[in-house]
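Incident review: delayed structure delivery

Summary: a single-chain prediction request sat in the queue longer than the usual turnaround. Root cause was a stuck worker, restarted by the on-call engineer. No data loss occurred. The affected request and its eventual output are reproduced below so the record is complete for anyone auditing the incident later.

Affected input:
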Amino acid sequence: MNRLHRLRNATLAAALVLSGAAHGQSVLLSFDDLAIAHMNLSDAAVLREAGAIRLSAVADADASASFTNGADAWPLAGDLLKTHVKNVGEKPVTLRMAIANDGAKNLTDTCQLPILLAPGEEKDLELPVIQRPVDPTYAPFQPFMMYFKNIDVRDNTVDAGVIRTISFTIDHASAGDSVVIGAVEQSGELAKSPPSFFPFIDRYGQYIHSNWPGKIRGDDDFNQRRDEEARERAQWPGPRDWDAFGGWANGPSLEATGSFRVQKYQGKWWFVDPLGHLFWSYGPTGVGFGGDVSPITDREHWFRDLPTQDDPNWGGFYRKGHGALYRYYKEKDWIGYDVARANLVRKYGPDYQKIVAGISHDRLKSWGFNTIANWSDSNIYLQHRTPYTVAIHYDCTMLNDRLPDIYAPEWETNLKSRLAREKETSAVDAYNLGYFVDNERWWGWRPRAAAIGEETLKNPPDRNAKKAFLEQLKKKYDTIENLNEAWTTQFDSWDALLANRTQPDMKNAKTLEDCGDFGMTFAEKYFATVKAAVKEVAPTKLYLGVRFHGHIDKAVVALAGKYVDVVSYNIYDNPPNGRVNQYNDLDLPMMSTEWGVGSDPTQTPFRGEKLDIDPTERTRLIEQYMKGAIAHPNIVGAHFFQYRDQPISGRPDGEATLRGFVNIVDTPNFELVQTNRRIGYSLYASRANAK
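Output delivered after worker restart:
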């Protein structure tokens, strides 16, 4: 049943004081004359005291109290509900307030807001009432957006005239957690008719028709959010059992080499940090400044109160662009706006990069992360405060969009030139976990990387890799006639095969075998050359591989394992165990270097196939993934994609995923942070005790 409406923990049918604009009163729900008809004390207890109630958890589970107005609904008059709350327990708690229409399910037909309360802390919990806008349908958005199929205006909104329940929940409560909740008051004024959907993005890049913790209402809110977050980080300074590198200070002490390394210890693979402590790498990708520029051209009506291009303060964040990989802007000129960067200036001032760089390290530790993962900014990770990985990319001739021609003379030259740039920085930094070289290079799904031979044969005759493949075939078959007999082809000469670009017959066993022979030769040359290049520049640092993606034949992974220190694999399967278990008998240390969850359904109206979204689904998926990863003896880390949200209006190609720990206004995602602390603060105990 839905968390907001199930009466699992405490069901309260009350004779309540109802007031609204017609009565000129502000109190909506009073506890002075509360008559409790039903109460389930298995998980919570409710006591009345001096115009308030005390909600207490009696078990390790969500503790909830839900109130109704008897047989009637509440017709709200105000657009803001407020109650004064106090944590009278001994631990920090998350208290959630919600209102809902009759028949509400999950996020549909409900408004909710959680807050974090330190022990003894009291504050006002203010819940904005978001009225349901007119449904525009998905048709106006289809040309612009990737991945999405629908739009949902009922999530996180209500019909304010017929509110059925008001509820309070202590999320993930522990027995003894206790909160005092005062009367619920309403203020402000609601619109008399459903609001128009457009514009649906405010000047800060936020979705207008929803609410979430930390939403910005005006420029002054940025200072308030910054101060609130600083106080919260002070309450959660980071796991106490971590050393300076995020390793397990209270765990075994192994040899301290001054650099990261990998070692199998008591049946499980681990990193070992420079101090000799066991280390399990956990962190987000893309730790940097701002987000993506989002086009405005031809959809200006989506946005409210954007500055003009000649605005002296904010006009400088406009950008001109042309084209995109996909969708509406593929062949168009466009003008876009970098609202995420503008928000960083609003929050921290013009010197935001220096400030954000320092805060990023503080955030990661407070949230339970010990690694800055791929795609991150060197201005942040080179501060010698948090272990990090380095992404190495370079230009070269390609066989397809993800497969370099490693036989081209510039391939190795450009690779070494790029690595040489690390010689005086990351190559001598103890916080450097190691190097990824390339990302999701293409190996194909066929056995023994036969797809590489297949793809090479379809390339032009001037490709060096194709020439190398033919030399390998000549050594095996000697004459073109012998090859024709094996492949059942009719090439007149080796030059004819070199010039041919048609699809080879991969159903022919000999063709498949020969393509696989070249694929494995290609893979060996690739990994051997890259390893030598990495170790030449950074002999004490780890070569973390190529970030495999999709199905990779075991023979290719085994070959890579001869050269890489850690097999990196972007694994979105949840849990990751099924993917990793395919390679268990190789007994290699593996790291999930990219995984994630879907968009935050409270901050965007865009949906995929599924409209009915459980509000706990994203956090449940994170816990499920990490439970499997931490327990697996071969997995030495997991890196979450990604640190920051994309704009809800999308990049030029239409990708608009809000899966980050930090949103468009640089506010941490409340749900993800609290979930991550439960994981990260017990990381090493969970790893050590996993069977």
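Verification: The radius of gyration is 29 Å.
Action items: add queue-age alerting; document worker restart procedure.
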